[in-house]
Amino acid sequence: MATFALLFNKIGTMKKTLLFSLLAIAANALYSQCSDLFISEYVEGSNNNKALEIYNPTPNAIGLNSNYRLLRYNNGTGSAAAEANNQTMINLGNHVIQPYDVFVVVIDKRDASQPCPGQECAVDLELQALADTFLCPDYNVSYSMYFNGNDAVSLQKYNGSTWQYVDIFGMIGDPAMVAAEAWSDEFPYDGSAGAWWTKDHTLVRKSSVQQGVTANPSPFFNVTLEYDSLASEDWTHLGSHTCACQVISVEDHSMPVVDIYPNPATDGKILVRTSEPVISAELLNLLGQNVPVESRVINSSYTELQVEGAEPGVYLVRVNFSDSRSTVTKVNIQ
Q: In terms of domains, do 123 and 102 share one?
């Protein structure tokens, strides 16, 4: 009997070893893809309602630090011409994107006195409230965020000597876009057949997508394979992204639920509700730096932050739990 017991124990150990080996292989394959930023949402709405959401699929914070830039390729412009023109590009600035979090870029048009339609027409207030930063206030300096349905956009990273594509939306140098208004969902994907997808739509990257498009597609056919289409002015998903890159390990089966309200915060107070007891809650700016505010744990489920001294803008609330876990959630303070 002892021999059989030893045999079954050995078999059981082998099964566990195999299971963890398979999990390790799957994790390595996953993280080889989930290794750099990519565009998780594209907003092409009416007037100046233009926005891009950039997702960090890694378990580490990524500092932009002028190492990332956006380029717009106007109406079928080829890469060489566009990338030699400073007006087409803009750096994303000195911000930090937290693990599995997003960074929302909105065109910098906020003067409500400007008439619509028009080049200076203000972005809708609802979309403004979702922005982490505003770019391109002056078209003559940079028109990267003035894209329409027939413009390609690339997200690039500086590797120390050259700029590399980390994601491409559209097709760079598509001659059909000189006359067309948008890419569509049927061959030849130039708007002549099927439904337009890249004009007057919000496009959300599918959760199965784990990396950006790093080689210029020809023709541009991946829009329906990689994006879900929403109606114009639909921003219900902007500000967060669901992605297969954010996996749960064998030990970490779940994360506590965290709710923050009101959001946007308008009365100088933020109430943080959690599904598990917290050690502390703190306010951070988008660089990940602590913003000194008063934090008061009311009970095991509620913590209050006094934020009346904080400047209006987008912040992060980090909630710390007793087992060294923490979560980060965005909040807009007005």
A: yes
Report pLDDT digits (tens) over 116-175: 998 999 999 999 999 999 999 999 999 999 999 999 999 999 998 999 999 999 999 999
Same domain, 144 and 120: yes
How many distinct structural domains can be found in the chain? 3
* Residue 218 belongs to some domain of the structure: yes
C-alpha distances in angstroms, 155 versus 67, 71, 135, 213? 11, 7, 14, 10
CA atoms within a 13 Å half-sphere pointing along the CA-CB vector of 8: 5
Report yes or no on 241 lying in a domain: no
Using DSSP bridges, classify how beta strands 302-306 and 269-274 pair: parallel, antiparallel or unpaired: antiparallel
Tokens 């750099």 correspond to 36
Q: Are residues 168 and 308 located together in one domain of the fold?
A: no
Q: Are residues 92 and 156 in the same domain?
A: yes
d(CA 23, CA 35): 18
Burial of 263 (0-12, 13-18, 19+ CB in 10 A): middle
Q: Is 91 a member of any domain?
A: yes
State which residues form the domain around 328: 258-333
Nearest to 82 by CA among 144, 137, 138: 144
Q: Which residue has the tokens 């929302």?
A: 104
Does 205 share its domain with 321? no
pTM above the 0.85 mark?
no
Distances (CA, A) of 124 to 130, 287, 288: 10, 26, 28
φ, ψ at 41 (rounded to 5°): -155, 140
Instruction: Please tell me whether residues 277 and 312 are part of one structural domain.
Output: yes
Structure tokens at 124: 């809708």
Say how far apart CA 300 and CA 32 lie, in whole Å: 39
Query: d(Cα 260, Cα 190) in Å, to the nearest integer?
Result: 43
123 vs 145: CA distance, rounded Å? 12
240 in any annotated domain: no
